[in-house]
């Protein structure tokens, strides 16, 4: 099984810190955020990783190398000077991700989610991990009904930035700037995405306040 770590983002809300350090290399507990993610994936037995790069991506490549120092194998999907957004970045990396379903996880989260094999139904194209809406969000992203993902106004849960995808989820898409939400809406409408409500540890390091809170915990 392979996994992709999304590390191409600009980290706008953490500027000016991320003017000189990529979001994925911001440190919590003495190690970069992306290393926390790598360690969770490795603990689940996932050792073939793909990391996408854009803003200050050379720093990430230099810091992680081939991944051997962290017990994994890392290949890089370089998006140049401008990130392709989530869906575009995944499509660009598909040649490195193989034919089997794969995990995709944001580089700027801290969590204890137990990555592993997900049993997708025959017609399902993805499985998303959702968490309780954080206090800083007025509305969530999705609701779950009988293990199926739905999207409604004032949804019950927030997308954790963790998903398990089949290649077919991205069928027909090109490696260009493309957000993930329209594809999620499309496949939810066709009832082809399952979901779970995860109640464990999860932190999004998206602002200085959240970064300070996470550092306090470590």
Radius of gyration from CA coordinates:
16 Å
CATH class: Alpha Beta
Count of alpha and pi helical runs: 5
What is the CATH superfamily label?
Answer: Spore Coat Polysaccharide Biosynthesis Protein SpsA, Chain A
* Assembly status: single chain
Instruction: Give me the side-by-side strand order of the main sheet.
Output: 5-4-1-6-11-8-12
Q: N-to-C terminal Cα separation, in Å?
A: 30 Å
What fraction strand? 25-35%
Largest sheet: 7 strands, mixed
CATH architecture title: Alpha-Beta Complex
Specify the overall morphology. Answer: globular
Domain count = 1
Mean residue pLDDT:
91
Write structural notes for this entry:
The chain has 218 residues and is α/β, with parallel strands linked by helices. The chain has a single domain (2-217), classed as Spore Coat Polysaccharide Biosynthesis Protein SpsA, Chain A. The protein is built from five helices and 13 strands. The protein has helices at 33-43, 57-64, 85-97, 181-189, 208-217; strands spanning 2-6, 27-28, 31-32, 48-53, 73-78, 102-106, 109-111, 126-132, 143-145, 148-150, 157-165, 193-197, 202-204. It has a seven-stranded mixed β-sheet with strand order 5-4-1-6-11-8-12. The longest helix has 13 residues, at 85-97. The chain is globular. It starts with a strand and ends with a helix.
Characteristics:
218 residues, alpha/beta, Spore Coat Polysaccharide Biosynthesis Protein SpsA, Chain A, seven-stranded mixed beta sheet, two-stranded antiparallel ribbon, globular
């Amino acid at each position: 099984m392979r996994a992709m770590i999304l590390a191409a983002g600009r980290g706008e809300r953490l500027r000016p810190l991320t003017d000189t350090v990529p979001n994925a290399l911001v440190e919590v507990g003495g190690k970069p955020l992306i290393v926390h993610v790598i360690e969770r994936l490795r603990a689940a037995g996932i050792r073939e990783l793909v990391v996408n790069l854009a803003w200050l991506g050379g720093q990430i490549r230099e810091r992680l190398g081939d991944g051997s120092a962290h017990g994994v194998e890392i290949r890089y999907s370089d998006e140049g000077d401008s990130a392709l957004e989530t869906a575009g970045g995944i499509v660009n990396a598909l040649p490195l991700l193989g034919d089997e379903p794969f995990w995709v996880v944001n580089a700027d989260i801290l969590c204890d989610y137990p990555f592993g094999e997900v049993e997708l139904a025959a017609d399902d194209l993805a499985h998303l991990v959702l968490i309780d809406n954080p206090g800083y969000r007025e509305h969530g992203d999705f609701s779950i009904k009988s293990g199926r993902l739905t999207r409604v106004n004032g949804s019950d849960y927030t997308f954790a930035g963790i998903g398990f995808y089949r290649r077919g989820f991205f069928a027909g898409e090109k490696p260009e700037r493309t957000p993930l939400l329209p594809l999620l809406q499309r496949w939810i409408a066709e009832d082809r995405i399952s979901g779970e409500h995860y109640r464990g540890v999860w932190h999004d390091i998206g602002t200085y306040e959240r970064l300070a809170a996470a550092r306090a915990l470590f």
